[in-house]
Amino acid sequence: MAETTWTAVCRLDAVLPERGVAVLLGDEQVAVFRTFDGRLFALSNVDPFSDASVLSRGIVGDRGGEPTVASPIYKQVFSLVTGGCLDAPEVRVRTFPVRASDGMIQVGLSR
User: Fold this and answer.
1) What CATH number is given for 4-110 in this structure?
2) How far apart are CA 4 and CA 68, in angstroms?
3) Pairwise CA distance, residues 96 & 71, whole Å
4) What local confidence, expressed as pLDDT, does residue 110 receive?
5) Which of 30, 65, 77, 95 is deepest in the core (most CB within 10 A)?
6) Among 4, 70, 63, which residue's Cα sits nearest to residue 31?
């Protein structure tokens, strides 16, 4: 079974509700999002349609109750839960475990 290594990436209060921030974990760019209800999500920051590292700057919302982010480039919508593209089901971005601990957001990487 893979072991998860947790890395503190920023203070919880640094991520406003319905916004994202980009963090660098080693050579991996990760977008961390906080929703209005306080849930945290983390996925790859790279938009697979433009190959630009921009998902953290996308528009956070929901589609049918599922929390989402729309890429700021071509506007494809990705599930914050699964990383799947709701506009092109064959495309997905990597998701990461994320949690809040002692006022810090931590992102997990499996090894």
Assistant:
1) 2.102.10.10
2) 25
3) 18
4) 82
5) 30
6) 70
